[in-house]
Amino acid sequence: MEALISWIIEPFQYPFMMRALWAGLAVGSVCAILSCYLVLKGWSLMGDAISHAVLPGIVVAYVVGIALPIGAFVSGLACALLTGYIKENSRVKEDTVMGIVFSGMFALGLVMFAKVETDQHLLHILFGNMLGISDFEFWQTVIISVIVFCVMVVFRHDFLLYCFDKSHARVAGLPVTLLHYGLLIMLALTIVATIQAVGVIMVVAMLVSPGITAFVLTKKFTNMLTIALSVSIGSTLAGTLISFHIDGATSACIVLVQAFCFIVALSFAKFRTYLGKAKPLAVRTECNEQ
Q: How far apart are CA 13 and CA 17, in angstroms?
């Protein structure tokens, strides 16, 4: 027992591990809440698109000399707006449009990055650097995460109705257009906050895994939010611990734990469904015997 306690406590004796943990909890919490709405709306690929599309904005922001998150936010939002415009003015489906837009913007970002002299490491942008996050980046991540979290909690019912049934939301008098772009802005801000810690690639998993794990376990949205938040926080704690002891990438370990949670949840849901079908059959058999 003492060995287990020591195994858990040891990593958090180091300041950089504590900073990584708090940053992970901040982005994990907001990603968990937002992922439930993305899964319900069917926007899982939208998070993938925006996260890849921020790279050109990061490069431009570095060249111009402004804060990198500003460039990332503008680039990500431009991707979302461009996707919506092409979808509304062509016969191409939204998922197809997102595929070409985000891959094109990501490729543009890679070309621009190769042509610019910078001290930024490409791997840190792609996969994050939780253990090396600076104090400024830490507070920037936490503040953006708290703002998005508060907005999603305050307007949770409005966003829920919009994601579930846009027509019903319009009939109910809700500003559907404002909610649409509001959700896109919250998604872009979340990705900007998360990139500092987990990078462009891993943010996709953090925006999908908690929500889809909760989705297979419950049909009630309130429970879905609770489960997603629990999965995300638990995965962050477990992933941070594991990464320290195996000397692995922290963000990758967190995503692996989230993937494991999804597999367990899916297996449990299948087993529960099987039991639900087997019990009525057993009851009918007993009735026939009587």
A: 8
Which residue's structure tokens are 């490069």?
Answer: 59
Task: Give the integer Cα–Cα distance in Å for 229 and 156.
Answer: 14
Contact 185, 111 (CB under 8 A): no
- For the chain, the farthest-separated pair of C-alpha atoms sits apart, in whole angstroms, at 83
> pLDDT digit string (tens) for 231-250?
999 999 999 898 888 888 88
Give the tens place of pLDDT for each residue, 135-189: 888 888 888 889 998 999 898 888 888 888 888 888 888 888 888 888 888 888 8
Is position 37 within any domain? yes
Q: Is 186 exposed, middle or buried (0-12, 13-18, 19+ CB in 10 A)?
A: buried
If one counts the domains in the chain, the total is 1
How far apart CA 263 and CA 216 sit, in angstroms, is 10
- Locate 220 and state its tokens: 């009630």
CATH at 94: 1.10.3470.10
Q: Is the whole model's pTM more than 0.85, yes or no?
A: no
Rounded Cα gap, residues 112 and 57, in angstroms: 10
